[in-house]
Specification:
The chain is of the alpha+beta class. The chain folds into two domains: about 50 residues, 2-Layer Sandwich (Double Stranded RNA Binding Domain), CATH 3.30.160.60; about 80 residues, Double Stranded RNA Binding Domain, CATH 3.30.160.60. The protein contains six helices and twelve strands. The strands form six sheets. Strands 1-2 form a two-stranded antiparallel ribbon. It starts with a strand and ends with a helix.
């Protein structure tokens, strides 16, 4: 992918995709609704918005998940989500911080991490001084020090420190 964003190092196949992506950093909204004047960063968002004026129904997903992971057989609605999921199996972390060398599997994680170097919104754990860019991640991290497990399965009483772990656990009761 030859087109790289200077702000977050995300790469794109086309210059138009990079230009569209740059709007997420500049907050530029070049696509304006002729009906009400509301502006959007992407043309697809404007198209979706215009349906509110025309009364046209939005596109509803059928629920079909035709993209399968060859390792775990989990299915996805689109190929980009499958590609991102595959990184969990390969362990590949193609997005590297130029400041400290830490690598990430997703560009959004690298972007969030870079805030720490800029000092923007850095939050620190009082126990280990690890830094975070959002309070929910810090709160979840703090559970590693307290041992607290606030998410409890109503079927068997087993507790978890993360809601995602409880959600995954509940599948055993459904037989999934």
């Amino acid at each position: 992918k030859p087109y790289r964003c200077d702000d977050c190092d995300q790469c794109f196949n086309s210059s138009s995709s990079l230009i569209q992506h740059r709007c997420t950093h500049t907050r530029e909204k070049p696509f304006t609704c002729g009906e009400c004047g509301k502006s959007f960063s992407q043309s697809s968002h404007l198209t979706q918005h215009c349906r509110t004026h025309t009364g046209e129904k939005p596109i509803i997903h059928t629920g079909e998940k035709p993209f399968w992971c060859i390792d775990c057989r989990k299915s996805f609605t689109d190929s980009s989500t499958l590609t991102r999921h595959r990184l969990t199996h390969t362990g590949e972390k193609p997005f590297t911080c130029t400041n400290c060398g830490k690598s990430f599997s997703r560009s959004s994680d690298l972007k969030r991490h870079k805030k720490i170097h800029r000092g923007a919104g850095a939050l620190w754990c009082i126990d280990c001084r690890k830094s975070f860019t959002d309070s929910s991640t810090l709160t979840r991290h703090r559970l590693t020090h307290t041992g607290e497990k606030p998410f409890t399965c109503t079927n068997c009483g087993k507790s978890f420190s993360r809601s995602s772990d409880l959600k995954r656990h509940k599948k055993i009761h459904r037989g999934a």
